[in-house]
């Protein structure tokens, strides 16, 4: 059993239920280990100076070049990378609502090079498990609040889903159980049960040292 915290990332299309599941899992883990041993974070972090620029962009209140906004999303993650690493090493489990995979999936769907989109995030703390909440864009569109932000368009979401699938295949080549696909089109209770099963399977089973994300890509370049 590892003494360090577990890094759990929840990913998916817009309106797939990520924030709901992240909140539920955080609460369950806090009940088990105590509030001080579990932390819930979310990307983008819209409270930082960089995050406020991203928030303005996502609400269509400002425009930025596709490359520029992608780098801002990455910088937003690097802003807290050291605190994520420190928390994990100090035994704090982190539940993260969106991470690098969203950044790549969304930017690549706009026509940017997949490899270029990945590059800025190489070396960030690597999750112990990614729970991908898979739902069709058609089903997501029927959920409340859809269309309020820039990327919530059905065709865009379809391309994003394909990119998530590609990322999942790559993730599994390094560690099969590090990417878990969950049917997010089912009822809330069923999805929560599937998510919790995946979380329980990985808790405490990670390596003692926090790995760095996508370092194998440096060897390929």
TrEMBL record:
Pathway: Pyrimidine metabolism; dTTP biosynthesis
An annotated GO cellular component: cytosol
Taxonomic superkingdom: Eukaryota
Keyword Magnesium belongs to the record: no
Sequence ranges assigned to domain Thymidylate kinase-like in this UniProt record: 10-194
GO molecular function, one term: dTMP kinase activity
Alphabetical list of Gene3D superfamilies matching this protein: P-loop containing nucleotide triphosphate hydrolases
Species per Swiss-Prot/TrEMBL record: Tulasnella calospora MUT 4182
Classification via Pfam families: Thymidylate_kin
CDD domains (alphabetical): TMPK
Key word Nucleus present: no
The protein's name: Thymidylate kinase
GO biological process, one term: dTTP biosynthetic process
Family per record: Belongs to the thymidylate kinase family.
